[in-house]
Amino acid sequence: MAPVPPGIRLLVSFNRDQWYRALTFALTFLLYTSFHLSRKPISIVKSELHKNCSSASELATVGSGSTGSQEPTPLSFHSNMDCSWKPFDKSNYKQLLGAMDYSFLCAYAVGMYVSGIIGERLPIRLYLTVGMLTSGLFTCLFGLGYIYNIHNLSFYIFVQVANGLVQTTGWPSVVTCIGNWFGKGRRGLIMGLWNSHTSVGNILGSLIAGYWVSSNWGLSFIVPGLIIAAMGVICFFFLIEHPNDLKSAYAQNLSPTKSVPFKSWNGANGHSELYLQYRDNKNQSSDTELLLPRDSVCVPVQPIVVVKSESEPSAISFMGALRIPGVIEFSLCLLFAKLVSYTFLFWLPLYITKAAHLDAKKAGDLSTLFDVGGIVGGILAGVISDKLGKRATTCAVMLLLAAPMLYGFSMISEFGLGPTIVMLLVCGGLVNGPYALITTAVSADLGTHKSLKGNARALSTVTAIIDGTGSVGAAVGPLLAGLLSVGGWNKVFYMLMTADFLALLLLLQLVVKELTSSKSRPISAVELKEH
Fold first, then answer.
1. pLDDT digit string (tens) for 419-450?
2. How far is CA 218 from CA 123, 183, 211, 353, 419, in A?
3. Residue 397, number of CB atoms within 10 A of its CB
């Protein structure tokens, strides 16, 4: 008999539960990658909506002067009118572009508070599917503005507001889903790896939008819109919200001809729970063998077949979520941390275009290095916080290092491409590290806090409160950048450094508590078995 190939031996070494965890991890990763992929095009297209018209006029003047003709060439005649996309062809274009960012992010921030509460009360799979399909629709609508030659600012503002509202369905849903499947053990590492979807989505969005930005910027929106809509369809067919949903499906598919004995015991929270008793025999189905132990054992299928003597714990209220220790502090910290991150997200390509004098495509490609650094920073933040058992301290140290690096980036961009690349990577890691840790591992920790006494219906609301508060900063940052950049980019960087220090100050109380508490310790492997 031929030996089993090593690859097959590796595949069969994992049980079915582990394969479904891997599926959930990969699927939610791709789902939220498509969300960020669809947000990125606006930052790439900004430099195309308002080109450097003065440069075009100078080129036209030089061309006409060299021929000795006093008549304006077609280029010089049309340059001031055609080089930019109305209504962004005026001197206040930065304010208009900032208003578009603000409309999306403000709608996102307001909608996020409501989205988490709704998400606790609706099936996550359906809620997320509808959100992704409608987000794809509005992203495509923005691109159709180019196809149908629409120059009305109100149209673009409306599309941004609508898209901001429907995109709030994404984050609470995917964090709740990943939190259901993975326990607290090594949560920082797992979610640090998983949260790289933010940077991966930004990178892919930059590359896709940059491919068409100079020839047909409408496709820079339409293609990402189609991608997120397609991922919504995949979500509908494959997303498993909770491991118990999978057990329920297999319990329902048991053959009615096979006799399965039931036993009853008193369960947790006063519930009477039914158990299925399995014995190792030849009539046991292959599906059951993969999911359940082979020895004679009583296996709980709660909450699949449950006779309740009292109602399930209700979804937590908004005020109840705010009373969880640490929620307010981390929410306010994220407000300023996300302000910095999203200012880079929406304005970095345009800054590189102006500072390094690169075209839109090259600036978009270079800006992806900030997100590459963000991937590394998010993973490092997760690993370090798992090792030390101190989430707030990890965030505080990275915020402390980020402020001088931001100042260095504003200065060093004048010294060539090499130093700029290095600073983009370093700043990306230090800026996105705390942001990634707070929105993932910290949110999941607080959503399953011991003060909740086992009530699992709080994760979506807590996640929405933290990310919604952060989104207020995300809305304010790009708007302030648009206003301050008129007086020079240095003012924008001073604003970012101030926000970074404020985020650090808001965490100081939690940092002191962590450093003085004897309970702060690395998360043990025992906790990994929680789920």
1. 888 888 999 999 999 988 998 888 877 776 66
2. 34, 43, 11, 20, 33
3. 18
d(C-alpha 471, C-alpha 492), whole Å: 19
Residue with tokens 């995109």: 167
The domain containing residue 139 runs over which residues?
A: 14-47+85-243+315-517
Residue with tokens 């189609």: 226
Alpha helix (H) residue ranges in 413-488: 417-437, 443-447, 459-484
To which residue do tokens 């999911």 refer? 291
Distance CA 88, CA 106 (A): 21
Structure tokens at 413: 């961009």
Helix 327-356 vs helix 391-412: crossing angle, to nearest 10: 20
Which residue from 347, 43, 35 is spatially nearest to 206, judged by alpha carbons? Answer: 43
CATH code of the domain containing 349: 1.20.1250.20
Would you call 472 exposed, middle or buried from its count of C-beta atoms within 10 A (0-12, 13-18, 19+)? Answer: buried
CB-based contacts of 33, cutoff 8 Å, min separation 6? 197, 200, 201, 204
Give the separation between CA 397 and CA 504, rounded to whole angstroms: 8
Q: State the Cα–Cα distance between residues 230 and 23, nearest whole angstrom.
A: 18
C-alpha radius of gyration, the chain, whole number? 26
Q: Is the separation of the CB atoms in 417 and 367 below 8 Å?
A: no
Domain for residue 210, yes or no? yes
What is the domain count for the chain?
A: 1
pLDDT tens-place string over residues 69-85? 444 444 333 344 456 78
Question: 45: which residues sit within 8 A by CB, 6+ positions away?
Answer: 209, 213, 217, 220, 221, 360
> Is residue 528 situated within a structural domain?
no
For residue 175, what are the contacts with CB-CB under 8 A and spacing of at least 6? Answer: 439, 440, 443, 444, 447, 459, 460, 463
Q: pLDDT tens across 229-284, in order?
A: 999 999 999 999 888 887 766 666 655 555 444 444 444 333 344 444 444 444 44
Task: List the structure tokens of 356.
Answer: 């390094």
Q: Are 277 and 260 in contact (CB under 8 A)?
A: yes
- The pTM of the full predicted model, rounded to 2 decimals, is 0.70
Is 524 part of a structural domain of the chain? no
Q: Specify the DSSP class assigned to residue 311.
A: P
Helix 93-119 / helix 459-484 crossing angle, nearest 10 deg: 170
Task: Report whether 395 contacts 431 (CB < 8 A).
Answer: no
Any domain includes 144:
yes
Q: Which contiguous run of DSSP H or E holds residue 257?
A: none
